[in-house]
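Hello forum,

I keep getting stuck at the same step: I have a sequence, I want structure tokens, and every attempt I make locally crashes halfway through. Rather than fight my setup again tonight, could one of you with a working pipeline run this one for me? It's a single chain of 426 residues.
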Amino acid sequence: MGSYSELYVSGHPVSSNKSSVYPADASLFAPADKKVYERRVSDRNPLVWGHLDSDEYETAFEYRTSAKKVAERLDVMGFTLRACEEMFEAMREMQLSNEYIFSGERATFLRRFRFADWLGALRTVIEQRPFKSYEEEEVRARIHEPVHYVLGGAWPSDDLFGFPLANKVDMRCVLRGLLEAVDHGAEVVLDYTELVHGGYYEEGDDPREMALELPEANYPSNEQIILLTEGSSDRCVLENTLEVRYPHLCDLYSFFDFHASNAPGGAKELVRAIKAFAGCGVRNRIVAIFDNDTAAAVARRALYGTRLPPNVKVIELPSLEMAENYPTIGPQGTYRADVNGSACSIELYLGADVLKDENGKLTPVQWKGYDQTLRQYQGEVLNKESLVTKYLDLVSRVRRDSRAAEKHDWWPMDLVFDSIFSAFNG
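Reply #2:
Ran it on my machine without issues. Output:
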């Protein structure tokens, strides 16, 4: 009969795999999501095992996290809700093109069964759990047709939850739509208990890591995204923030190590790095992050006319509302100005509480060299090193006690990571 791993979303079985953990299932979870605990045998999922009458205990082996975190991981991988909708419509059209299978009543239904209908039917199934009720004729008549289709009772097919031709697309694309139909706090569980009990894994094994090392897991979506920054300070700030703010996404990214490579920093060097990575055929997705200042704008002119491969994206730090009226020091003395596009380096995104001194005043920007081509000055916030040190001290406190994060102004850094996470979603 064999042993299986089982993937559940909000308690509902989504996929199973015999004798091993499926790589696509493994990619949904972060290393820290592994759980080993004691449970009653009767606590196994009744939708798979039925209602077991047993008082015995067993050691359960799972990966477990929230639907929200899995959805965020899928978005980073490229399996966004928008991609799910586009794939749904494409597969629906492909089904309709097969007149031999989909004609008459089937075709009429499928022509009006759109992505929004599918999501609505999914929500009904998840909320009401009318599982297997389509087998009863009197109940079948009461089930709304889209729900009937999602349950698999409309006609035999290879669809997964009514997603057209799901067997021809990556399961994670379908799953992203399914996650939109459940509460953010709903649990996503990969239960591989039977595989350990069946001898396919040892108790101390990490099936997630083992699955992702298999040849069939060697897909671009599973490869780490490489982040290129203007220098080691940018990297240090972003890497530490990712670890404390988005720990469930850490394993999806890697940072170019300036110290190990002895590479100099700066916007011009980042341009050189972009061209080097683009030209050497690296298949990993790459996101290059420029400061939002004059120096970066000048350096990026060297990329004009350069055709970058689709796996390389260039972004800049986002505009800040706080930077629209920020204290500066220049030839005209001290005054406030909009420093977006001219002085927003990573330090401006550390949060207002970090940028303020003991008197509650923001650390000002100092205007420096003037660029003739852009007709604007380059600005630089004062005391950059001390600001970074202050921020990293905060991050260290957050690691020790998460309550230290409650009063910090995370909004600017969240904007930065929103840009990073969505770099390939446009």
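The chain has a mean pLDDT of 88. If your local run keeps crashing, start a new thread with the error log.
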